[in-house]
Amino acid sequence: MIRCMAKLDDKFCWLAVVARDKTADGQFFYAVKTTGIFCRPSCSARRPLRKNVTYFATAREAEMAGFRPCLRCRPLAAVGTDVATATMIDLSQYLEAHADEPISLAQLAQRAGFSPFHLQRSFKAVIGVSPKEFQTAARLKRLKKSLRAGDAITGAVFDAGFGSTSRVYEHVDGRLGMTPSAYRAGGAGETVSYACRKTALGLIMMAGTERGVCFVQFGDSETGLLDQLKREYPRATVLASSTEVSPLLDAWIAALDEHVSAGGPQPSLPLELRGTAFQIRVWRFLMRIGEGEVMNYTDVAKGIGQPKAARAAASAIAANRIAILVPCHRVLRGDGSLGGYRWGVDRKRALIDTERRRRVEKP
Ligand SMILES: [Zn+2]
Predict the structure, then answer these.
(1) CA of 268 to the centre of ligand 1 (A)
(2) Exposed (0-12), middle (13-18) or buried (19+): which is 49, by Cβ within 10 Å?
(3) Which pairs with CB-CB distance under 8 Å and at least 24 residues apart come from 308-311?
(4) Which terminal Cβ of the chain has fewer Cβ within 10 Å, N or C?
């Protein structure tokens, strides 16, 4: 395996680019001056001239130097993600953009160049739910949006692709959500469902609304975690989820457990970020730090375009309530030491170590 660690070795990197060496992916990125685009070493795009190539240790640095990510090899997808993962993320975005159309598994499979069986499995492994469940969630999301915008309920239901009001109530009532009228009434009676799992790093509680995951925390006991959840959502109805009641949440926590305990891919789940505009900006930025990469508070402040706000960025990071999926563990002190972690420095170290190991061992 070619490794470009502290300083990128021009010769090694170039050999990897020429060989389109998959094992070098995640170790460095190359940018092409003449096109303004940067790639993973294994990119299938036409090989550039050596004199036009610059190497970067991270995708972030390439971006900061003004290069745009290649559309073919998707260098911004989390490190450790392969092209199949990027394809599944693409498909999920496609489903979201076309939530009002019926799209069959066969159509999706054809689009991705997979067999329907393979597609169903890969989609679930990467996204955490089946394509069908994802479509339903995407439709619900669209419905909420049009209801918030003040559309009449029946019209909104049809626009969101459900076809009839009774079908949407089946989904909304039975799953994580509330009825459309309750939503119109300003969210009174909002339901937050939760589930717990023992993972390799300890007990995790995940909670979600119908819009996505809003809470992922480690703790010592289910009752302690539940108290905390209730403190954060004092006016919501908080319910233990069962597989029948919220299959989505159940699939989501299983995917997260698979990631934490068995090194599965980090699931890309819909999140409901609740906080100030500044906090949300910081959290969204954290989600762009790749697996196995780390930054410090100053980098984050610069990354959100407020280089003087390192302190405020640190507070926003400390206020994160969605462990792992909003990867606040990837932010270290300026001197490279671990710094704090809401759920214990040992867990932070374990998360970083595992990600680094996966990055190096990647086949
Ligand atoms: Zn590329």
Answers:
(1) 22
(2) exposed
(3) 309/278
(4) C
Q: How far is the CA of 45 from the centre of ligand 1 (A)?
A: 6
Written as tens digits, the pLDDT of the chain (363 aa) is 333 444 678 888 999 999 998 888 878 899 999 999 999 998 888 889 999 999 998 887 888 888 888 877 878 765 445 667 777 777 888 888 888 788 899 999 988 888 898 888 888 877 777 888 888 877 777 766 665 555 555 555 555 555 544 444 444 433 333 344 444 433 346 788 899 999 999 999 999 877 778 899 999 999 999 999 888 777 778 888 765 556 677 778 888 888 888 877 777 777 777 777 788 889 888 988 888 888 999 999 998 888 888 999 999 999 899 999 999 999 998 888 888 898 999 999 999 988 888 776 654
* CA of 294 relative to ligand 1 center, distance in Å: 23
Gap from CA of 90 to ligand 1 centroid (Å): 16
Residue 51 corresponds to which amino acid?
A: K
Catalytic residue, from 70, 196, 214, 328: name it.
Answer: 328
328 is a catalytic site residue:
yes
Domains in the chain, CATH or no CATH each: 10-69 (3.40.10.10), 83-184 (1.10.10.60), 191-257 (3.30.160.70), 277-361 (1.10.10.10)
C-alpha separations of 191 from 162, 176, 223, 234, 236 in Å:
22, 7, 18, 11, 6
Identity of residue 135: Q
